[in-house]
Description:
heterodimer; A: MetI-like fold; B: alpha/beta; D-Maltodextrin-Binding Protein, domain 2; 9-stranded mixed sheet
Amino acid sequence: MRAPRPILAVATVAVIFISLPVVGLLQRTPWSSLDELLSRDSVIQPLLLSLLVSVIAVLVVVVIGTPLAWTMARVDMPGRRIVRALVLLPMVLPPVVGGTALLFALGRRGLIGQWLDQWFGLTLPFTTLGAVVTAVFVALPFYVIAVEGALESGTDDLEQMAGTLGAEPMRVLRRITLPRLLPAMGAGMALAWARALGEFGATITFAGNLPGRTQTLPLATFLALESDTEEAMALSLVMLIVSLAVLIPMRDRWMPVRRREQ
Amino acid sequence: MRGLLVAVLLATAVACSGSDTNDLTVFAASSLTDVLPDLATEYENETGATITTVFGGSNHLAAQLRDGAPADAFLTADARLLEQVGTRDRPVNFASNRLVVAVPAGNPAGVSSLADLARDDLRVVICAETVPCGAATSGMNSTINADSQEISVRAVLSRLSLGEADVGIVYATDVASEPEVQPAWQQPEACPCVTYTAGARTYRALPFLAFLTSPVAQGILTRHGFATGEPD
């Protein structure tokens, strides 16, 4: 189908708008000293930590987010809209507020945190685990909303049929629901991962900033911007490459792209 | 549609050009968060000017200035930054501050000496080296086993007031302003110190800089725990 000209024009403007900052970043990148910059510990360490934190966070998100999305989509319960709003809240909340809220709940003197500290000697702030918890908190809604949407739009015909044919609910879930849900789960994982990787405000507020322990790529970039602009550019470039490397293949494999046949 | 666009553009133009010569935008280091509003109010009463304040980490503010942020004056604890961003006339030193080893009220971890900063079992929080309080902290030449390097001194202070950290290094004025935080032990009023310098980015900020060293302003600074006059 040929798009009408005005639509194409606006779409082009939108693409230019969204890619301009990337171009700006690329033209400021110190290409000649990039080799040296990228081999610095102060670049590699945050990169590895960011990958570790975001990947673990996404795994946790899938494990707790899938049942949550299923419950929200399929179980008729009172207060469903309130649960939904609560789950989506971290998407809207300014990250710094989210981080502060986490402190009040899970910090050493927080609502739950004080007991974690007293009973298990476990304190989350200033630990890598704390950075993971933060990432899960901000990324979970992105996954849940993607999976819940797919569960709501998918018809129950197959599931009902399997049920009438005598399949146990867990078996229906495993054999019918989950396989059809995979594309949405993949898309949700990509979104959640991207959110976890880019998290700054909540991480620095809740987990703090220590190289090798809690200093993720965004934190390292922010600090480098204040002291070593070239290193900051190199860190930004790393972030850009890692993100595109995950998002580009994801799009084709997982996103439910609907193409009209020619 | 077109009418609306014109209206928006006009409103923007008016908003941008409407700054009175009496209106000042002041960028200031985050450690001045408590005192600057008092100074601004006094200046506003004296001159009828309106002051808008923006607080942040000194380096971050300097980066914004280099990128063209519209500030009339920049108050920082790192005079080199003023050289970098450029000023009208000479910058003015108007106060100084010193570092204090501080703990949450009641000193729950029993911190009693500099040696405690090296302990593994304590949660020690300091400023990142990129901000002035962090640079001064590394000037202490103590072994510090930090659990977090915060991006501003106020962030360190909030770690202490919330009880997340056992001990931290902040400015004397921060301890004075926060009832939930106290000095870890009686510390002599000696350096390591930082000196606050004010630089004018526009000529109309020069009277405000002169005001900062006036007896009234110096009195306000002293009341907030800053040292005034030349540091020893």
